[in-house]
Amino acid sequence: MLAQARQHPLIPVFYHASEEYARTVLAAGYAAGLRLFEFTNRGEDAPAIFARLQRYVEAEYPDLLLGAGTIYTPEEAGRFIEAGADFIIQPITSPEVAAICRSHDLAWLPGAQTLNEVYAAHQLGATLVKLYPSAYLTPAYLAILRGPLPHVPLMATGGIQPTVATMAEWQTAGATCVGLDARLLDTTEPAKLTAHLQELLAALRPAG
């Protein structure tokens, strides 16, 4: 998962009650070169929709990793792991969820803000630490964290504007990858979404 995040450092973060619409988003993102998606646990039917999406991904896009986000408890993590989640993302850091991810040899991305929180999440075995909400914390804040924590992989997400200039700011600040929320995905034109995602992804990839 970490290798994919470094090579394809843009991760859509979305939930939709329509499985058909979610498939459209996955297909458009894949065509743009994305290989990681976070489907958030924000609807009553989220686990069931996720399970069907995972089967679709495994059949159509076997090199795409589909993870579950907005996970708080081991029980929630377990439901999505059983549904085939390739990674688990949290808005918080929960040692209990870290443990269940370790037991399944699964990537775990907890949320954190302060230096102490980021370091503690890393010590608990985080594959990536999710700096959240990043828009509030700013690229300058991430760059400061990079000083004492140069080797900790960091995912910037939460309220980030889907523009090329913003992607370049986060890339320069040292983000390993960037998560973009549903405002990016509100489209009925998959080709336009693919083109937009390609531009954003290009801005996040280091030169050379």
From TrEMBL:
<dbReference type="GO" id="GO:0016829">
    <property type="term" value="F:lyase activity"/>
</dbReference>
<dbReference type="Pfam" id="PF01081">
    <property type="entry name" value="Aldolase"/>
</dbReference>
<dbReference type="InterPro" id="IPR013785">
    <property type="entry name" value="Aldolase_TIM"/>
</dbReference>
<comment type="pathway">
    <text>Carbohydrate acid metabolism.</text>
</comment>
<comment type="similarity">
    <text>Belongs to the KHG/KDPG aldolase family.</text>
</comment>
<keyword id="KW-0456">Lyase</keyword>
<dbReference type="InterPro" id="IPR000887">
    <property type="entry name" value="Aldlse_KDPG_KHG"/>
</dbReference>
<protein>
    <submittedName>
        <fullName>Bifunctional 4-hydroxy-2-oxoglutarate aldolase/2-dehydro-3-deoxy-phosphogluconate aldolase</fullName>
    </submittedName>
</protein>
<keyword id="KW-0119">Carbohydrate metabolism</keyword>
<comment type="subunit">
    <text>Homotrimer.</text>
</comment>
